[in-house]
Amino acid sequence: MTTSDINSKNSASGNILDKIVLKKREEIRTAKLKTKLEQLKMSDLFSRDCYVLRDFILDPALTGIIAEFKRQSPSKGIINDHLSVEEVTNGYAAAGASALSVLTDQSFFGGKDEDLLEARRVNKLPLLRKDFMLDEYQIIEAKSMGADIILLIAAILPPAEVRKLAKCAKDLGLNVLLEVHNREELDRSICDDLDAVGVNNRNLGDFSVSVQHSYDLVEHIPSRFLKISESGISDPKAIKDLRAAGFDGFLIGENFMKESDPGKAMEEFVSRI
User: Fold this and answer.
1) Whose CB has fewer CB within 10 Å in the chain, the N or C terminal residue?
2) Sequence-ordered list of residues with C-beta below 8 angstroms from that of 260, at least 6 positions apart, any chain
């Protein structure tokens, strides 16, 4: 199965995900010309040992929440573009985040590599480079910027590519989070070199959201992987229910970022769990 085959499954008429992938491939080609792999590997951060995601997600002193820094999205436009990475991520950490997710896609989400570097500079939690990973080059980039976790999105990757990219990440000591949206994506994409499987409650084709996707898939995710419910979580009660259903972690971004003080919003959210 090819990437185009997978994308055609998402929408016969094309969708925002197709546009993102096309743009991302162009950006990767440009990045390779600008910075060679050898230069990335010379970064001081490239040689650091990554935090182990499992240790932080399952730490009873923390919340299990992967809190996200996200300025904008294709579906919502600008969410919050006036706060610094430092103040937001420090607020998340103070509120008990188990890990931090930082968008680095610029064209569609308003992120940038410097956001990840800044988050690394001011935090001692696992960092997820949230981007559309299509090439081993991006994984080496992530390591050179201080990421601890990379995201592999089943909707845009054939199974062979999932396996190849996951192995590349594990060889570098990175944690691997596989993101799926339905049973078909899950079944074709599961492989040994994963640490966690996330169920994206948001359809990346049309950006509709339903937490039911998590409930539908939780029992089909092998128990050896951390189980993460992603997106669309706005009610603290949902955390209790999802945890009871078998989820270990919860990726939340927009619910916090839409507030004037995301760290305080997370603190209040956590107090109600």
Assistant:
1) N
2) 80
Measure CA 21 to chain center: 16
What whole-number distance in Å separates Cα of residue 31 and Cα of residue 33? 5
CB neighbour list of residue 82: distance below 8 Å, 6 or more residues apart: none
The pTM (predicted TM-score) of the whole model is 0.92
Which fold, 3-271? Answer: TIM Barrel (3.20.20)
Handedness of CA 159, 162, 165, 167 (dihedral sign): negative
8 A C-beta contact, residue 251 and residue 92: no
Rounded CA separation 79/42 (Å)? 35
Cα–Cα distance, 5 to 17 (Å, whole number): 13
**pLDDT value for 204:** 67
Structure tokens at 133: 């990973």
